[in-house]
Specification:
With about 280 residues, the chain is an alpha+beta fold. The chain has seven helices and 17 strands. About 45% of the residues are buried.
Length: about 280
């Protein structure tokens, strides 16, 4: 039996980058002290959230060549991995690549060596029921690549927030061998209260994988507009059961990932073998 313990970190990120990075370090240390996980997962835009498009882009970081030193958010993730000897799935932060900007995940192994990079594919350009407009494409370009990586023999699939609504991406990750699919997110209060748990459980059931969702929570400002994130970070097993959940405050949710259980679920209902289309 192979078991990996994963902790999903729940943050309340704002527009002070140094404070956000300190919060990420502190919450990660608390999770390690309490639950001794093998992997930490941070939320979407953990290093900077809110403010203006210009401020978001000013907080962006160019990614270094693998093995070289990066900027603050990148090195914070690397240090967390190295200092606690854990894998780190680094939520996301604003990446600058020349004149382009992306919402990007970077993952690290227990030594702080980079394992993977993923740029969010589906951008959140919507109007929520409370009338607020969200235009992620004003800040970011869209990624194109389906990304997985190996963590001690467990295949991790990458997604970010709004990607959750696109089952075809999750099917592609499952077909690429994913055992666990990560969903760092900053779901809005309006969409989260109705869709968050439903979507996470649906993706887990469809793909017969574990789904680990690390979320933003609480309020932040987009210019002068106070907005709220849903929180409720959770981990769902391949049968669709929620096996860990955080509440509305900052903190973490931890659970064990059992690869043998994935095989059991897939043997009970062999969806991949029955697929026609």
């Amino acid at each position: 039996m192979f078991v990996m313990k994963i902790s999903a970190i729940q943050m309340n990120t704002g527009s002070e980058k140094a404070a956000n990075l300190a919060q990420a370090r502190d919450l990660s240390a608390q999770a390690v002290l309490r639950d001794r996980p093998d992997m930490l997962v941070l939320p979407e835009v953990f290093a900077f959230m809110g403010s203006s498009v210009e401020d978001k882009r000013a907080a962006a970081e160019e990614l270094p060549e693998v093995g070289e030193t990066g900027a603050e958010a990148y090195e914070t993730l690397r240090a967390i991995a190295r200092d606690h000897s854990v894998f780190v799935h680094g939520g996301s932060f604003v990446e600058r690549d020349g004149d382009a900007f992306f919402n990007t995940t970077v993952a690290f192994d227990r030594t702080g060596a980079e394992l993977a990079r993923y740029r969010k594919i589906h951008l959140f350009d919507v109007t929520t029921p409370d009338g607020r407009d969200y235009r992620e494409s004003d800040t970011f370009g869209a990624g194109r690549d389906v990304v997985t990586y190996d963590a001690d023999g467990t295949t991790i699939g990458c997604s970010i927030c709004y990607d959750l609504r696109f089952a075809e991406l999750y099917r592609a990750l499952a077909e690429a061998g994913a055992d666990v699919i990560m969903v760092p997110a900053a779901f809005t209060l309006e969409t989260g209260k109705d869709h968050w748990e439903v979507l996470l459980r649906a993706r887990a059931i469809e793909t017969q994988t574990y789904v680990v969702a690390a979320a933003q929570t609480g309020t932040y400002f987009e210019g002068n507009d106070e907005r709220a994130s849903w929180g409720h970070s959770m981990i769902v097993n391949p049968w669709g059961h929620m096996i860990a959940q955080a509440g509305e405050g900052t903190g973490h949710a931890s659970a064990e990932i059992d690869r043998d259980y994935i095989s059991i679920v897939r043997a009970r209902i062999p969806v991949a073998q029955h697929r026609v289309l």
